[in-house]
Amino acid sequence: MEINKDNLIKFNKKILNCREIFPFAALLGLIVVASFLSPRFLTFVNLRNLLSQVAIIAVLAAGQTYVILTGGIDLSVGSVLAVSGAFTGFLIKTAGFNPYLGIFFGLLLGTICGLISGILVTKMKIPSFVATLAMMAAARGGALIITGGTPISIFPEELTSLASYWGPISGLAFIMLFIYIIGQFILSKTRYGRYIYAIGGNEEAARYTGVQADRVKLFVFAFSGFCAALGGIMMAARLDSAYPTAGEGFELDAIASAVLGGVSFAGGVGSLVGAFLGSLIMAGLNNILNLMRVSAFYQYIARGVVLALAAISLSKGNKFAK
Amino acid sequence: MNRLEVKNVSKSFPGVKALENVSLELNAGEVLGLLGENGAGKSTLAKILNGIHSPDEGELRVNGKTVKFKNPGEAKNHGIAMIHQELSLMRNMSVMENIMIGSEPITGMGTVDFSGEYDAAKEALDKLGGGINPVEKVENLGVGAQQKVEIARALSQSSSIFIMDEATSSLTNEEINKLFELIDELKKNGVAIIYITHKLEEVFRICDKITVLRNGKLIGNVLPEEVSMNQVVSMIAGKAVKDLSPHEFNSKEGPVFEVKDLSSRGVTGTKLEDINFKLRAGEILGITGLLEAGKTELSRALWGMEPCESAEIYLDGNRVDINSPKVALNNGLAHVPEDRHLHGLIPNMDVAKNITLAKLEEICSMNSLINFPEEVKISQNWIENFKIAVSSYRQKVKNLSGGNQQKVVLSKWLQTKPRVLVIDEPTRGIDVGAKEEIRKQIQFLAKEGMAVLLFSSEIDEVLSLANNILVLCKGRIIAEYKSEDADKERILANAMGIKQDEEVI
């Protein structure tokens, strides 16, 4: 393409219309500021740790983004993470299952939890906030029952090796990248992704047009449950234990990551690329505050401020993009 | 001195002259019936009186004083109250809270004075004959009682001019009688009422004078005792304005689409009874009727969106059970909905994605992966074909004009290559140029052999396009015409449910 003024303006407009530009700029800003604040930020070891720290929340955020894109929300991801991790641990340690089989059944359990939420939303017509709040409570109970309230520890190498480093990046980061690549591919290249956006944009019209909205919604909740279970197994691998209290409050971090990445709560707008950038901003912020030895109490305030600023800039950005 | 005077008021919108030099007068204690077809200018006039629009020319006088409303609040301050078609009450709150909202009496502590609120609400209700407990929740009341609460609210805000828009549309006969008693009470209280309706018998029952509008122009101010119903019908109808003539059609082939004994339960609106019709390839069958005639319900039923009590639907002679849009779509039906914003479009999506949405699987490899170059080609074809004014196929549909949005909806459905096109109010709310283009396109499709079922409340539109015309009234097919014997006045009289001496085919 010839570079002239028109093309340049078109290109600029395209970039400005792209919702991911805000979180991208924010992430760049964060990196620049952080590398000035601490010389340890831009080191290989730190970045490597950052990527494996972000992995679990980012995987939850991927499933969460699918649900939010259809106009719903999934509050149960933290609890589903715990119950799936505990179930996998129980099968491997107590029941003596083959580790891979244990992982398979853990993922299956999470997916079933998601499907149940989906059935409550589509067939019973319960708002997703309430349906997944119920699942959040029930799944946490399940995790406590399976573990008897105490952590299940010391797993075979097949499981723990997921968290070890394979070359420069960890197994956890590989899993995260895999989920994001597949997830973004489904969203932007397949018709199921198109239906997700259509339902979030105008569910009535999508139904009228013959889109089987209930099936698509079941799928997104199942996907979110699957991602949560994957998060649970990643966590068990990393800590070499499955805690009944694992993932408490993670649902909020996952939602925050999606919002920071420009995923609209009204549905129909946003992408996994955005959610990924959002997760990186959250983790990067935590990381630099830790490096600077800021107290955890103040870190919560910093997170709240950043989230509010992101929401404000996105609502402004929306007006500009019109 | 007149309570309300409208003098030479005109109002234009881009591309449309909505009102032209309209005048009327209304005294205290009088009821004026405002009549006209859809698009005649009734709602524009109501919106001007209610402060939603301001007139381009002319003036309004309330109690002899010239007034200019900038917003509905100012109209309310001058005593003008609108009683809406859809009720505007907070259903979760009590009757008295609804009546007193915005003017709650306050105690010395700064809290709401409930006993004072109760008394004031009761007083307003008693003026209307009482019978409603002020502490009852609105959601426990019937539609008629809710309307009474709405009127009581307007009264308590000392409104003296009421605009009632299709006030009886969701009332039972008994409730209608009660409303009319209430209107008598209001008249005694010196309230002046503009009564907008399409039900002539109601106008003749309660109105002191009649104003008829057609195409934004004042056709006449008459007194009910001086005219007959049929005279009023011809004032409303006027001469048919046809921008096209129906195409030649005399196929002897069997019907492509046939509906037998369709009856609905009327869960969402008008109950349909004994609907029967046949549609041949290349034919445009027009179905017309007024508000609540059952037009919307019938069109939704054919798309699997309205529960039917009984219905036999045949495509090419084969019985099909249409219980969801997907089934209808797979059987070669397409449905351009009445409300394109609610049912037709995904506003945040671009033109190309909207056009391919209905049969996306057809441009997917392995039934899943979207073929993007194919999508672009398809959307560019339709953009060219329909002259859709867009900057690119990536433009979001929410930023298009009404006419262009409708062309996108039509493209989406034609892309499914339907054999039967159901099209509901195809030209509602779009500018004149786009209207004509869309009508020509519909006719072209029929000439090419498509079977078209055209739902329209614009009788002129049906007369311009349809080979055969069905008239719906109160959920039944009340008359049937061939295009050559169709007559606007007779169709309108049928639709209004007025019996005429001529025989009906």
Radius of gyration of chain A: 20 Å
CATH topology of the largest domain in chain B: Rossmann fold
CATH class annotation of chain A: Mainly Alpha
Mean pLDDT of chain A: 91
What kind of sheet is the major sheet of chain A? 2 strands, antiparallel
Largest sheet of chain B: 6 strands, mixed
Shape annotation of chain A: globular
Radius of gyration of chain B: 25 Å
| CATH T-level topology of chain A | ABC transporter involved in vitamin B12 uptake, BtuC
N-to-C SSE string of chain A, H for helix and E for strand: HHHHHHEHEEHHHHEHHH
Structure, described:
The complex is a heterodimer of chains A (322) and B (505). With 322 residues, chain A is an all-alpha fold. Chain A has helices at 5-17, 21-37, 44-69, 77-94, 99-122, 128-147, 157-160, 171-189, 191-201, 203-208, 213-239, 250-260, 272-291, 296-321, and strands at 152-153, 165-166, 169-170, 241-242. Chain A has a single domain (53-314), classed as ABC transporter involved in vitamin B12 uptake, BtuC. Chain A is 75% helix and 2% strand. Chain A has a two-stranded antiparallel ribbon with strand order 1-4. In chain A, strands 2-3 form a two-stranded antiparallel sheet. In chain A, helix 4 (77-94) crosses helix 11 (213-239), helix 8 (171-189) packs across helix 9 (191-201) and helix 9 (191-201) crosses helix 11. Chain B has 505 residues and is α/β, with parallel strands linked by helices. Helix content of chain B is 32%, strand content 24%. A six-stranded mixed beta sheet of chain B has the order 6-7-8-3-9-10, sandwiched between helices. In chain B, strands 16-19-20-13-21-22 form a six-stranded mixed beta sheet, with helices on both faces. Chain A binds chain B through residues 189-192, 194-195, 197-198, 201-202, 204-212, 268-269, 322, and chain B through 303, 305, 325-326, 328-329, 335, 337, 342-349, 353, 357-361, 364, 368-370, 399, 412.
